Every structure is written in C-alpha cells, then in structure tokens.
From TrEMBL:
Signal peptide region: 1-24
Stored SUPFAM superfamilies: Trypsin-like serine proteases
Residues annotated as transmembrane: none
Protein name in UniProt: Serine protease
Entry-linked PANTHER family: ACROSIN-RELATED, HYALIN
Organism of derivation: Solirubrobacter deserti
Lineage summary: Bacteria, Bacillati, Actinomycetota, Thermoleophilia, Solirubrobacterales
Domain Peptidase S1, chain residue ranges per copy: 25-261
One of the Pfam families matching this protein, by short name: Trypsin
Keywords in alphabetical order: Disulfide bond, Hydrolase, Protease, Serine protease, Signal
Taxonomic superkingdom: Bacteria
InterPro entries listed in its UniProt record: Peptidase_S1_PA, Peptidase_S1_PA_chymotrypsin, Peptidase_S1A, Trypsin_dom, TRYPSIN_HIS, TRYPSIN_SER
GO biological process: proteolysis
Gene Ontology MF terms: peptidase activity
Length: 265
C-alpha cells in the first residue's frame, strides 16, 4: 500500500515536471483575470511590443528603449510621437485592455543606449479607469532588498526566441545582490539597474516584457513597482539574471517624481 502510494506520488511529481512551463514570461503561468489592473500592453508603430505599468491615472511607465524611435542608436533619444503608441491597460488577453490615447512619451535626458536610465513615461490624454500601481517611495527600500521575492508580469516571449502568449504571464523571482549582477554583466550600474532571477535560471522576463514591472511588497503589504524590465543575455539562462531599471532608488525615482509626482509613493 505504501509502495503504491509512493509510486502514485512519484508519477504525479513527474507529470507536474513535464507539464510545467507550457506557458510563461519564461517559466511563468497565466495571470488570473483582474489580478494586474495596472499591467499595460504597449504597441509601438503597430509592430514593436513592450509592456508597461500604469503608475498614476494618466501615466504609464515603460522602458527607455520602448519610447525611443532612435532605439539604442544615438545617445540623445527622440521619443515616439504619442499617436504611434497604442496602449491596452489591465487586460489579460492581447488587445483586450482599456485603450486611452497617448499624448507624449518622455525619456530621461540621461538615457544612453539600452543601458542606464532605461525608462520612459507615457502621458495619457485622460485618466485610465484601471487602478494604478505606484513606484515604491524612498521609505520602501525593503520592498526590493536582495533576497526579496518580486513578481514579474508581461506580454513577452515565453521562451528565448519564442512566441508571445495568448494570456498575460506572471512569475516570481528573487532580487539579487548588486555584486552578483555586476559579475554577470559588465554594463551593470548599481544606481540605475537592479537584477532578479535564480542562479540556475529558468524563470525570467524576455523580449516583449521590456518596460513591464518588477513588483515588490511594502512593509504594510502594498504592491509597488520596484523595477522596469530592461535587458538580459538571452532569457532565463543560468547565471544571467534579468536586469531591471532601478526605478525605486534615488536616481530614477527622483526623475519619475519630477515628471509625474503622483506616480511615486
Ligand atoms: N529588452 C527586452 C525587451 O525589449 C527585455 C529583455 C529581458 N531579458 C531578460 N533576460 N530578462 O523586451
């Protein structure tokens, strides 16, 4: 009897393993409807896909390399004109979120290449009806301390070089120390970047997730944005964590608050 039980549970365990990531961010799962009202699908010129977060009723945070027409080509970015940016807020299937016209994209003057300062703020023509998630404030550094588990969510590829999902994906990843990330990436800058991922890889953001949130939880249990998906070598590779714009630390938080005061706190 005990042997049968053991066999049965071994079978269940191996089924669970083989059945695991049919969907993902990479290594993630389908987000339940309504779980992330602040997640935004961002389409640039009807073709490039990014993710973003509604951080105030009329402001979306996304990546610098998502808002810049000139991409990584030049140091002084030229922002996409608002009419070329389509946003779908709070949906869990592609194109199903709330649509609101974008007035303009604002890129920090210090944005260089796709490395530091990899953020853009999209101003909406009117407030969204969805509930925003703010960027964590100065008192909330514990929400993204190394070892803390954060939540990633996005519309990006579910495997390196793979397709984008039919349902919004989410997953959890631990925030790494800065030394570990500096060892993984020579471009790492501890003022404007923070990394997250398991040493063995397997769970990560990927192409199309850029600009989307790394969410943390404050001491009082509130969800806040602590990172915006930026880059990585491949996706979910061992020893290569995802790199996120360090939006809740001084450098980027101060810039975000100067443009959109309601987006922080
Ligand atoms: N730059 C990518 C984008 O445009 C995001 C890559 C994230 N990569 C990673 N391994 N975490 O969507």
């Amino acid at each position: 009897m005990i042997r049968r039980l053991l066999l049965a549970s071994a079978t269940v365990a191996s089924l669970a393993l083989t059945a695991a990531p049919a969907h993902a961010i990479v290594g993630g799962s389908n987000a339940p409807a309504g779980a992330y009202p602040s997640i935004v699908e961002v389409k640039l010129a009807k073709s490039f896909l990014c993710t973003g977060t509604l951080v105030a009723p009329d402001w979306i945070l996304t990546a610098g390399h998502c808002g810049s027409v000139t991409g990584s080509a030049v140091a002084t970015p030229i922002a996409f004109p608002g009419p070329l940016i389509d946003v779908y807020i709070g949906g869990t299937t592609p194109g199903a979120g709330e649509t609101v016209p974008v007035t303009r994209a604002i890129i920090p003057p210090d944005y260089l290449l796709t490395q530091g300062h990899d953020v853009t703020l999209l101003q909406l023509a009117r407030p969204s009806a969805q509930a925003p998630t703010k960027v964590a404030g100065a008192a909330d550094a514990g929400a993204w301390a190394p070892g803390t588990v954060g939540t990633i969510a996005g519309w990006g590829a579910t495997s390196e070089g793979g397709d984008t999902p039919e349902t919004l994906q989410h997953a959890q990843v631990p925030i790494t120390g800065d030394d570990y990330c500096a060892g993984a990436y020579s471009a790492f800058d501890a003022e404007t970047m923070v990394c997250a991922g398991y040493p063995e890889g397997g769970i990560d953001t990927c192409q199309g997730d850029s600009g989307g949130p790394l969410y943390g939880t404050t001491a009082t249990g509130e969800r806040r944005v602590v990172g915006a998906t930026s880059f990585g070598e491949g996706c979910a590779r061992p020893g290569k964590p995802g790199v996120y714009a360090r939006v809740a630390d001084t450098e980027l938080r101060t810039w975000i608050a100067s443009v959109a005061p309601a987006a922080v706190g």
